[in-house]
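User: Before I run my own analysis I want an independent prediction to cross-check against. Here's the chain; please return only the structure tokens and, at the end, one sentence I can use as a sanity check.
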Amino acid sequence: MRGAEALPIKDEPAVAASRPIHSRYEDGTPLYRDQRPARLGDPMVPDPEADGAHSRLRWDQSNQRVYQAREYDENGRPVRDIDFTVRTTHQARRGKMSPFPISIHGNLHLPALDEEAPSQSDMAGLLFDMWVGRQEITLRRVLALIGDSAVVQSYWEIRDAECAGDPEAAAELIQISDKAEFIKGARLIELADRGVQLIDGELRAQHAMSAPPWLLIVAIDSTRWLVESTDRTVYSRLQETMATTPSDGPSHISNSNNQSA
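Assistant: Structure tokens:
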């Protein structure tokens, strides 16, 4: 696997400037938000026509290529999901794109992996499954792991939100995202308590409106959570809790050169 490198950017028409890009393929081809292929669905359901180990493919009809693959073992159990794009939010924060392809389950290839907790000036965090068997790790649970008091004391920016769960709460969170508004932590907890689930997008927490983010929560395609923070307590709590969760276990990510916008 080659090291992280800058991603080539293909020429795009000027009219596409207002069309949000969700992610890019290795050759730089953009995948726009409105082009995202239909999800593969329940990860515990293999292809009923398959015999033995196999993969289910999430086909990108617009760009005529595989967007995501889900691998199953010979017993029909999901092994891992593999993404063939990288989110543009990762590029903006890290300055460079990750090597391709990205394996979502257990083998996410990001630069500068580190087992150590972050210093206060660094971002570091954990990547872990959104689903453990048929049990979903909800947005509300992630917020509880961070700590309700810390959530309430922060201002939150929601970016590129795609939501499920309670229809009214989901619509409200998407509207906040589309308007690029900041909300208080108490309101975010209220929405999560109503049953909204973030399945794709990013939450950024700031101690003040003009302060840099101290916490990032990224939902990756209804499959994984990526939580990064400068707070040692949050990092340690997440590390301890997710290490005991019966899944592939968390991946430790260090980002000492965080470039949050």
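Sanity check: The longest helix spans residues 167-179.
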